[in-house]
Write a structure and sequence with these properties.
The complex is a heterodimer. Chain A is mainly α. Chain A has helices at 2-26, 50-54, 60-64, 68-86, 103-111, 141-150, and strands at 39-45, 115-118. In chain A, 40% of the residues lie in helices and 6% in strands. Chain B is mainly beta. In chain B, the strands form two sheets. In chain B, strands 1-2-10-9-8 form a five-stranded antiparallel β-sheet. The chains are: A mainly alpha, B mainly beta. The interface between A and B is large, with 82 and 110 residues.
């Protein structure tokens, strides 16, 4: 009986050894790339310069961590206050930009910081005809924004503030992917 | 009168902190100077007009001397968000994260949850491209009907930010003509993805934005 028990244990041990041996030899060593974990939002961006220009200093981090669907409710009034304080072109309540938007309408659009992109054709921030259908690399977005902020109803107000006179990149863009110029 | 108006405007500009910078470069204290600082976001129709190209740039104002040692942070996920039904909530995401010299891409796919916290669904469409080293020609991967690039590029942003600073500081009443591009000669770390329109909607307008998320 006791002998049988020992034999049994010995057999079991041997079996386990064999199993683990064969296990070792069959397994190719494969380290799977680890993509686990939770990633927490630090920065976000839709349209250029929105956080920089329209969000008060103390609220910039908060704006970056507010989801777009809640941004208008939380920030539109701050945007409007800052816009009317910033631009003489919005000094009077009836003032509008060249898109026909008053301060409330303009900041209502900008406070939800997403980039609208057309799937049907020209994609540009503004090209004189198409408005907010995307953002191409060559778009002079700062001048467009300065014009909408300072340029008044017909883009003629505050001319010294409404164009930075830098209208193109310092290197030409590529016509093919990846489109951006090689680094300096 | 006009001068006073301009002076008032410039002072107010300074007060609300316009001095910070440009498109989204160093826009907020929590991200400035970190590898999670988004500098710019672009979305445009590709050379193949059936496609949309998305560009996310991080780590702005890299001097050429700093670019050779610049790298993506493996703890920072860059997430392209796509809203296809105009409620400003993401319906699809494309997630990019670097591992050991490669940039991995997941999506476009519908995330199990939306908002500030993200996880990576390893079962989503997965693509990868080797990160182009500084000084090498661009390495492009064609996978799953999409194109991918990751690596240093010239900063495509342009603006006379220096003169803006002068205006804000009360040292100038307006921009110069011609202006001077403050971002000339500087680089960024770029992620570029080109996706068939059929994978992100078919027609109409989508809303898009980019997020930098750090591993908890």
């Amino acid at each position: 009986m006791k002998f049988n028990k020992i034999k049994y244990i010995a057999f079991l041990t041997l079996s386990l050894l064999i199993i683990s041996c064969s296990d070792d030899s069959d397994t190719t060593i494969q380290i799977e790339t680890d993509f686990s974990g939770t990633f927490v939002q630090k920065d976000q961006m839709g349209r250029p310069a929105v956080n920089t220009v329209f969000v008060s200093s103390s609220s910039k981090d908060e704006f970056n961590t507010t989801i777009p669907s809640q941004q208008s409710a939380m920030f539109q009034s701050m945007f409007q206050t800052n816009l009317t304080a910033l631009s003489p072109a919005f000094a009077n309540s009836e003032d509008k930009n060249a898109l026909g938007q008053d301060a409330a309408a303009f900041t209502g659009l900008l406070a939800t910081d997403v980039l609208n992109v057309s799937l049907d054709g020209t994609t540009t921030f503004f090209d004189g005809t198409n408005v907010l259908t995307g953002r191409a690399l060559a778009d002079d977005v700062i001048t467009v924004e300065l014009l909408l902020i300072f340029g008044g109803e017909d883009f003629t107000e505050n001319p010294s503030l409404s164009d930075d006179n830098v209208s193109a990149n310092d290197k030409p863009f590529l016509t093919s992917f990846p489109y951006l110029a090689s680094p300096w | 009168m006009k001068k006073t108006k301009i002076l008032t405007a410039t002072l107010l500009v300074a007060i609300i902190g316009l001095i910070t910078v440009a498109a989204d470069h160093i826009d907020a204290p929590a991200v400035s100077g970190t590898k999670a600082d988004i500098t710019d976001f672009y979305a445009f129709q590709g050379e193949d007009t059936n496609n949309i190209a998305f560009v996310a740039n991080v780590q702005g104002l890299l001097a050429p001397s700093a670019t050779s040692t610049a790298s993506f942070d493996e703890n920072v996920m860059v997430e392209f968000n796509i809203d296809t039904n105009n409620d400003n909530v993401e319906d699809l995401v494309i997630q990019a994260i670097s591992r050991d010299g490669k940039m991995y891409f997941f999506g476009p796919y519908a995330p199990s949850s939306t908002g500030l916290n993200s996880t990576i669904n390893k079962n989503a469409i997965k693509s990868e491209v080797s990160i182009t080293p500084y000084g090498s020609s661009a390495i492009v991967a064609n996978q799953n009907g999409m194109k991918f690039f990751a690596g240093p590029r010239d900063d495509p942003f342009f603006m006379d930010f220096a003169q803006y600073g002068e205006i804000i500081g009360g040292n100038a009443s307006g921009f110069n003509n011609p202006g001077s591009d403050t971002f000339a000669g500087s680089n960024v770390m770029s992620i570029v993805v080109e996706v068939p329109k059929s994978q992100i909607g078919t027609s109409g307008t989508i809303n898009t934005w980019v997020e930098a998320k750090t591993k908890q």
